[in-house]
Amino acid sequence: MAMELKVDTDPAEVGFDARRLDRIEDYFARYVDDGLLPGWLAVVSRRGKIAYLAKRGHRDVEAGLDVAVDTRWRIFSMTKPITSVAAMMLYEEGAFELTDPIARWLPEFAEPRVFVKGSALKPVTEAATEPIRVWHLLTHTAGLTYGFHHSHPVDAIYRENGFEWGTPPGADLAECTRRWAELPLVFQPGSEWNYSVATDVLGRFVEVVSGQPLDEFFARRIFEPLGMGSTGFATDSADELAALYVPDPATGKAVRNEGFSQVGRTKPACLSGGGGLVSTAADYHRFTQFLLNRGELDGVRLLGPRTVGLMASNHLPGGVDLERYGRPLFAEMPFHGFGFGLGFSVLTDPVKAKTLSSKGEYAWGGAASTAFWVDPAAEITALFFTQLLPSSTHPIRQYLRQLVYQAIVD
């Protein structure tokens, strides 16, 4: 059953100035009016109540279809927190320890090699001095990478093996994981942070540990209990699926991209725990409420409060931020003042990050410029949906934070 999404409180009841909240629509309307975004939808809630909901523009410009409350969006890397929750549910059942080597379940990772020098054509590698552990997958510290980074010889090796923006045709998650295990690591496990296919490997880990395909685990253990009936690896309502756009290099205006538009229409061969899901604003809002409520929603508890607290803590060694520990590459969040937890970025220093958000806020985004955050201190969740690749095109997330927090008046 689809959950209805609507404003269910007077903004003043939860400490917002309604006129100040309207600045969100005023600001983002310009993106649509100027042709930079096809359309968008934003949701802001506080203390479990939706205080603000706005939408503008089209889910499909060419077909003249407006953004609707039930529009399906490709959430890409906003899949990662869901996969991380799945893993931590198994952790709570005693299936593994966070420090366990993943090779116990994924033997292909028994003897990883680490790139030392050379080129993509002639890499020089050495044996890993540390096994890849479960927490390395959850924190992107395993030494894995993405082909689309274009900054390291190993990234090029990924591309040569069919891993840039997608996976080799016909290869399932088990096969992709075996292939990733054969490629060199960018660094010794646990020594640095690098945004990567780690969460896809984590999805395979969930399959092996649970004995279920990832889509089945998600559906039975997470989506059905939380009432997220419109979320999955493909949508049964293709007409409600938003079209995908990219910026025109000459004008910056959003133009339709047919190549990626097939994503989400049919079930993929590789069930990507790192970026494969399609969802709705209502469904992902329920997921954020489950997180804000520390593992429980409407009487259904999937995680204990201490587990959610651990996930939302900075796990980077020494408590440093990504700017000091990460590689200065693309990620879905800024690096200054942000650490990384078990599946999310974690705001460690609002002053360093130059943001109005609260210390302890955790968040992530997706490649098509979608984003969410959960702020336990202010009891706020916020969501933004659109379909523009890549997410680094516009500073949507920073401005959304400014516009949400300036509206708090209590």
TrEMBL record:
Gene3D superfamilies cross-referenced by the UniProt entry: DD-peptidase/beta-lactamase superfamily
Superkingdom in the source lineage: Bacteria
InterPro entries per the UniProt record, alphabetical: Beta-lactam-related (IPR001466), Beta-lactam/transpept-like (IPR012338), Diverse_Enzym_Activities (IPR050789)
Ranges of residues in domain Beta-lactamase-related: 25-403
A Pfam family assignment: Beta-lactamase
Protein name: CubicO group peptidase (Beta-lactamase class C family)
Species per Swiss-Prot/TrEMBL record: Amycolatopsis thermophila
